Amino acid sequence: MRLDKFLTECGLGSRKDVKSLIESKKISVNDNFKISPKDNINENEDTVKVNGEILTYKKFRYYILNKKAGFITAVDDPREKTVMELLPDWVIKKDLAPVGRLDKDTEGLLLLTNDGVLNHKLLSPKSHVEKTYMVILEKDISEEDLEKLRNGVDIGGYITMPAKAIKIEDKKIHLIIKEGKFHQVKKMLEAVNNKVIYLYRISFGKLEIGDLKIGEVKEISLEDII
Ligand code: URA
User: Fold this and answer.
1) Superfamily for domain range 3-54
2) 3-state DSSP: the chain helix, strand, coil percent, rounded to 5?
3) Architecture of the domain made up of 62-125+207-225
4) Helix (H) / strand (E) containing 30
5) pLDDT for 31-78, tens place per residue?
6) What is the phi/psi pair of residue 172, to 5°?
7) CATH 3.10.290.10, the chain: domain bounds
8) What are phi and psi of 143, to 5 degrees?
9) Residues 149-163: pLDDT tens digits?
């Protein structure tokens, strides 16, 4: 792989940025500083250092974002602000895409990765990844309605799969679903004559939002996900 490509994929900036790092002797390959951006390196065998620190190449990267309301889940959009705009500079955006979708007004856990195979696998209807949502409701919810949500409700010709619904307060529940139909949580609550006022995703499979604040991002590993 070309040295400049390797360095950009390691998150050291644009091709222009890494060229200037090389020129200012901040980069070495096998302790050699007489290098050019066009040099080919073997990312598994050569030792590349930045300011004396060894750089390790990661083909796949995984991040969790605590999505803020007002941003759409898309890589780019001509009109709306996207979740990509919430990502700080240190996040490597190349080929990065969100796994699934949260509505513009939904907040909470959103996984992003450049690992297309994993992305596809996690979204497959067969994968049944459990997602936990904290839902603030317009009206108090009855035990009867919670039971309907658990057993499955009709969301416009589709009966939802069994779910877990836990009452936290009169107008606040945790809803745990294994599917990801378009506007599913909102439609499920509409099916029991209620309305979602606020929606926040707490977990996605093994991943939990924990104390990550709204708008913050952290890098995670594949082992955290599967
Ligand atoms: N269900 C919804 O209705 N909206 C979301 O953003 C996620 C799940």
Assistant:
1) RNA-binding S4 domain (3.10.290.10)
2) 25, 30, 50
3) 2-Layer Sandwich (3.30)
4) none
5) 999 999 999 999 989 999 999 999 988 889 999 999 999 999 999 999
6) -140, 125
7) 3-54
8) -60, -35
9) 999 999 999 999 999
Q: Which atom of ligand 1 is nearest to the CA of 183?
A: 3
135 lines ligand 1 (CB under 6 A): no
Residues 104/83, Cβ–Cβ less than 8 Å: no
- CATH 3.30.70.1560 placement within the chain: 131-204
**Cβ–ligand 1 contact at 160 (below 6 Å):** no
The pLDDT of 107-112, averaged and rounded, is 98
Q: Tell me the three state secondary structure of residue 201.
A: strand
The CATH number of the structural domain formed by 131-204 is 3.30.70.1560
pTM of the model: 0.88
Per the structure block, which two tokens stand in for 178? Answer: 């294994």
Asked if 56 and 50 count as a contact pair (C-beta separation under 8 A), the reply is: no
